[in-house]
Amino acid sequence: TRNLIVLGFAVFALFGALVFMFINAQRERELAQRQAGFLANITHELKTPLAVMQAAGENISDGRVTDGNRLRTYGDHIYEEAIRLRKMIEKLLDVARVDAGQNVVELAPFQLDEIAENVYRSSKDFVESKGFRFEINTGGKVPFVMVDADHVETILKNLIENAVKYSSDEKYILIDVRNLNGSVAVSVTDKGDGIPKKSQKLIFEKFYRVEGDLTVKTKGHGLGLAIVKNLVEMNGGNISLESTPVKGSTFTITFPVLVQEMGSSEAAKRTG
Ligand code: ADP
Fold first, then answer.
1. Where are the transmembrane segments (predicted)?
2. Which residues contact 21 (CB under 8 A, 6 or more apart)?
3. What pairing do the DSSP bridges indicate for beta strands 248-256 and 183-190?
């Protein structure tokens, strides 16, 4: 019987290893497929603005366009397409840096309510111009955390941008900053399309996009949340998601508090 038990274990282990290998191979295949789709899309998207800029530039330098108004229109085209290109290239470089492990993090003590307020103020015009009601709730000062403020801004901007992109009916976004026990949380809530349960883990993977009407209509490459997750983790934080299809989503990032702030009685004892 002992031999039988050993044999049983061996068969079980072999079976487990096979299942593991199969799942791994499947995931790699999926990633390769997404990557190929991404390359096709990005090639098209990089070439289109370049073609517009080249044609507009040619017309101007040939001396074919001399009328002031038309010159301005061509100038606008070149300017807008250049901005689009720059944004796309910045995103690609972000991903390349993440892949190469070359992202530098400069940690310093910050209060997340201040960073969130900054992001709120700088995104307000854009978000409201898209027809959204946009609110922030900080409930006063929160304890210091060690983060790279630029990274936290990038994270929040990405989450807000997504909330705008994936809200087709109710247009509402709330940034909420809370002091939890030993950590500070910032969440971005929308009342948009939500994310199906089976996609919730996958959306943080590179190139993954939820299939659906809106994803087809909305531009994107499935890179934003991969960058976000990487930045959160580089800053020693955590990201979580609660989402219900049609009702909306809440993305929450948390960072550990730098030092336990002194209670007021303790502070009084020290000063008194
Ligand atoms: P992108 O927006 O470029 O596709 P992201 O990595 O930022 O890439 O997001 C991945 C996918 O997750 C999106 O394609 C979308 O399907 C889904 N998603 C992200 N944020 C939201 C949100 N706030 N509401 C609904 N779906 C979202």
1. 4-25
2. none
3. antiparallel
